[in-house]
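User: Some background: our group keeps a shared notebook of sequences we're curious about, and every so often someone picks one and asks for a predicted structure to add to the entry. Today it's my turn. The entry only has the sequence so far, pasted here. Could you supply the structure so I can complete it?
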Amino acid sequence: MARVSSVLLPLALLACSAHFLLPCTAANLSRYNILQNVRPEDVVWQPYPYLVMENVLPHDLYEELADAYPTAQELVSIARNRQTAKMNNNVRYNIMATKTLQPKTKIPTIWKEFVQYHVSADFYKEILRVFGASLADQRPDVERTRSKQYDAMKLVTRGITDPSADLRIECQIAMNSPVRRESKFSVRGPHHDMKIEVWAGLLYMREKKDKSTGGNLNVYSCKDGKCAELTTEEKHARGLQEKKNHVQFDEGDLKLEATCPYKENTLAWFINTPHSVHGVTPRGVTPFARRLVNFIGEVIGRRHG
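Assistant: Of course. Here's the predicted structure to add to the notebook entry:
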């Protein structure tokens, strides 16, 4: 238990700082836990550890959160720090946890509480409960880099500097903006995330009136067992999106293993590895945003001295 306490204390102190609206209340916020109904055996291990679960939150709680979700323009204005910020076509916008939890940020209290819980040490314990085995198996480099086991690591909310921290944790209220022009390209094609990312999660919050197509998350494996990233020249030759980091692989070289539907109250989560290839299916023209919550865990570089 001593090692768990070493995780709890630093983040508890952080949660009581002036950065946050709701100091010292993380212990009362567990009702928001997106992993409360998830078991370790729900994790699928191939082609890499991932989870897809519908109705992940209790219905009444999800409806409260959905009703209080910021409008698309509100989200853009907060994310861009401008009340009249322009909303671009089919673009990702994120509100970082540090911004959500600032007292001056005009976001409903239920969302401030939700975000605060999901950057807490209590939630990190839940991540380890569900994904601890897959983290140790697929990302042992993190423990080597930090010279300690996962359950002894100290957390810091992404965007706050703490030289003694091992992992950055993030919870973003986010969306892909409405699609005004049809395109064959997805908002994000097949790719894997940067190596510093250890885990990623998406809670989908589709609006009930949204009848658009696409926006699903695909899980891929590589047909030859090894994913070969395409060069810019190869992308151009194959007619693929050439925007940096938008797409790294040709879907023709991949095998579709699973799809997480863009559906209300649905969670997708995966451990990030060099073969954790995933992508979003293209959306049709729609006035509705692709609403989601983004969860991230990142390893901080090797400690010196």
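Suggested note for the entry: Confidence is low (pLDDT under 50) at residues 1-21, 23-27. The chain has eight helices and ten strands.
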